[in-house]
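Convert to structure. Protein one:
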Amino acid sequence: MNITTLIPDEHGDIEWPDVDKDRRVVITLGAFDGMHRGHQAVIDRVVELAKRHDAGSAVMLFDPRPAFVHAHGGNTPEVDADALSGVDERIAAMERAGIEQVYVVRYSLAFAEKSYIFFLGQLTGKLGMRTLVLGSDAALGAGRKGDVQAIANLAAATGVFELDVVDDRGPGEVRIPRNWMPQMPSKWGEPANPLEGATKAERRAWSKKHQAKPVRTWSSSNVRYLLGNGRINEADAILGHLHAVTGEVVHGEERGRSIGFPTANLGASITGYLPVDGVYAGWLVDLGKAPANAGLEDRVELVCNAVGAQRWPAAISIGTKPTFSEATGRYERVVEAYCLSEDWLELYGHTVRVEFAGFLRPQVKFGSADELVAELKRNVQTTREITSRQ
């Protein structure tokens, strides 16, 4: 796979790379945050059509996420805490799907102001686009005026490219509270859908109470909402894979080691959306040590190598360690993974992926370390049961 980074200038213009104009390409574009099943359907269609027409397969990947850039008026913070996955994870998934070329475009407000007609002209003239693949409700260009119907009309009028529309919505729509905030479940075990088994009248009442808005079932917004409420199984089903975050293992307070549960502690620089505080069953994957000053290609290679990397079932904690935080005065949010391994794992300085397979329980303060140990043993057993089924 080739990865090309394109940085628009202050006017939003791009200096396009030289490409082989004799081999046209099938291309799609978007942020592809999380690479959920809707995204996978679009990517798979690009690969399918490229093979059918003996064309190249390409993705134009916007980074940062357009929603993130617009929400901050172009003055984006360094960290996008709402991004489900890192750019490296998304590109690695595209490579596994068979994409040959990824153009990573540094999304900006100036770039967003280009009309969809101008932009599509650039794709055909500069990159040799023969087919544009889009999801069913995609829109691009200034004011999002380039919706599927407008682009279809343009393709028919010019005859220089084709439009292929993929149903990437999934099974209908769901409703999400308009101003929801992460809410840790209060009970043990994977939370249920509060609307499961509800009548139409009950659904309407719930939607009105929470000022809920409709969103696609297969959408990054829905996945964030589910993760923010501990509904890991539903989120993973939409993603088509286990939700994960990555980070570097650092030295912690070693409280876990003192009670017989040594953990791998992730540093503050975590890539991926953190589910709500709680204890989870999942996996820890050792990606190894990243090269010094690792670039995007290095990070993508690191993620791709995860297929053959060592992985262990793990009980994962996200929170502020309520049993100990009063004594230490440290309340920062931390991620720890206790690997179910008989061997001591020396992972300091390694990049690891923490994958989430199920919600076990909320973070609670125990009366003593002994009570905490007893609960941790139950968490380990449940983790074994959940991961043994995967």
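Protein two, convert as well:
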Amino acid sequence: MSDNKNQFKKKGGLGRGLNALIAGSYEKKVDPVSAPVAAVNAIAEIPVHTVQTNPFQPRTHFDAEALEELAESIKIQGIIQPITVRKLSDDNYQLISGERRLQASKLAGLESIPAYIRQANDQQMLEMALIENIQRENLNAIEIALSYQRLLSECNLKQEELGDRVGKKRTTVTNYLRLLKLPPDIQIGLRDNKIGMGHARALINIADIDKQLEVYKRIVAEDLSVRKVEELVRQIGKENDTKPEPTKPEVSEHPQAGEIKRVESRLSTHFGTKIQVKSNAAGKGEIKIPFISVDDLNRILEILNY
């Protein structure tokens, strides 16, 4: 037992980084030629075909052109940052983080890839995958917000704990979570970089969804600045303050209309596209999931695990 301990070097804690999620993180260099089966808590070259995708992957959209560019870079320079996997059995691994690097490596025709090999249960995998993705610079605001929401709901974290885990102030976390209250069209626009975080934060302050969408369309059509949008929002607020109270409350056309809209919003956020849910008084109906290309269809099928 003591001989084995001498083979490992204890690493210092990384504070709020990924490795802080795993107590007692160790590292050991493994030569894949002399060691046919890679050791746990080590860095090793492992065959690309032995790595399964991560079922907890929080990212749902990968730019095809960016993947091609990364693949070309890998052909020339190789993999600079290893992926992270957990060992399921001998020569069988499951990805924790690094899906873009894995996909690009396959495109580049690599047979093996450097990997950190860890031991982790499903809960740890989800936390590691979410936090690793949150810390990436190219993650869009909606993906960050959804990752925060999953950490809160699926990992049973409180907002204070979440802020500590991701190294962000609680107000920052709250601002991202508020984005999920926006209509699906605006969330998709934010995801696709049609508007920025500043635009979205201003739109949240408009109580009426129709007004939100109206201003959103103006932002896209007229390329409005954040300052201009903030002025429009203040103007809308003043107009609402001067409006008289309605004499009669609005009555929903369908007794379940509110719940159906909430379901549509949740599904649209989950699939990253505008979902339509139709239902009649008898409770029968249909769900429509549109897609804009074959790649978009494949992305949706992956979410469905089809």
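Residues 183-241 form one domain. Residues 226-242 form the longest helix (17 residues).
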